[in-house]
């Protein structure tokens, strides 16, 4: 069995991606990504993305951890009081035990919600891949509420970037015609690809970029399948608590 690395380095030479903000993407169709979670973090007002993988659990990046996280589900425009929205406090913040805040190794975290999300047309879970699941030649996308322009204002509506992944989508995003960017505010969101039975699958977690916007080099995603066992064991442990 091949041992795949836990971090995906997706080079901007092919994609034009840097940081954790979507620039020049497009507004997503409202509630077309019902698994998306908006994380409002602490008193500083920091935001991150995340995604619902279980009615009680959000998966996101460990570098988003702070005290007092509230999760907003079912949102398209978080600045509005949409009827579809559900605001749920986080009961337990569970970063991977080997997370390194300096290198961002093992940049993955589960959030246990204080109470179960109500599954509706606007709030649904997304599947995650098993350790040995293959994704060769697939269509993927990234979405979030991060800034929509370099040095711009906050973006309150969900935006998305669609990319085509060729060869082994774990390693290369081959889409030279798409010059989109991901930057501040979108950390923790999913790299979503079509998996088994064409179902949306969270293949990666937006982690970081090695260069700034003026010198785009590469963006790193955390490979979700590498943490399949940890995710399942953690959910089981905290569900029994």
TrEMBL record:
* Residues in the signal sequence: 1-19
Instruction: State the SMART domains in the record.
Output: Tryp_SPc
InterPro entries noted in UniProt: Peptidase_S1_PA, Peptidase_S1_PA_chymotrypsin, Peptidase_S1A, Trypsin_dom, TRYPSIN_HIS
| GO CC annotation | extracellular region
Write out the coiled-coil annotation as residue ranges: none
Give residue ranges for domain Peptidase S1. Answer: 22-236
Keywords, alphabetical: Disulfide bond, Signal
Can the keyword Ubl conjugation be found in this entry's annotation? Answer: no
UniProt-recorded Gene Ontology molecular function terms: serine-type endopeptidase activity
Task: Name it.
Answer: Peptidase S1 domain-containing protein
Q: Which lineage?
A: Eukaryota, Metazoa, Chordata, Craniata, Vertebrata
């Amino acid at each position: 069995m091949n041992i795949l690395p836990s971090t995906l380095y997706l080079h901007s030479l092919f994609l034009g991606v840097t940081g954790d903000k979507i620039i020049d993407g497009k507004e997503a169709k409202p509630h077309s990504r019902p698994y998306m979670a908006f994380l409002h973090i602490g008193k500083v007002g920091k935001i991150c993305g995340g995604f619902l993988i279980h009615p009680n659990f959000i998966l996101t990046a460990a570098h988003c951890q702070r005290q007092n996280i509230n999760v907003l589900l079912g949102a398209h425009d978080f600045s509005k009081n949409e009827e579809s929205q559900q605001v749920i406090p986080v009961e337990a913040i569970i970063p991977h035990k080997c997370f390194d805040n300096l290198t961002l190794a093992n940049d993955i975290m589960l959030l246990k919600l204080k109470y179960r999300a109500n599954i509706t047309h606007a709030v649904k879970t997304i599947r995650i891949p098993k350790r040995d699941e293959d994704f060769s030649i697939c269509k993927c996308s990234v979405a979030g509420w991060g800034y929509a322009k370099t040095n711009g204002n906050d973006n309150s509506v969900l935006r998305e970037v669609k990319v085509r992944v060729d060869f082994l989508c774990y390693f290369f995003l081959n889409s030279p015609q798409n010059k989109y960017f991901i930057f501040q505010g979108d950390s923790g969101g999913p790299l979503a690809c079509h998996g088994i039975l064409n179902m949306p699958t969270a293949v990666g977690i937006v982690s970081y970029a090695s260069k700034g916007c003026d010198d785009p080099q590469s963006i790193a995603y955390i490979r979700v399948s590498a943490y399949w066992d940890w995710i399942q064991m953690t959910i089981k442990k905290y569900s029994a608590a």
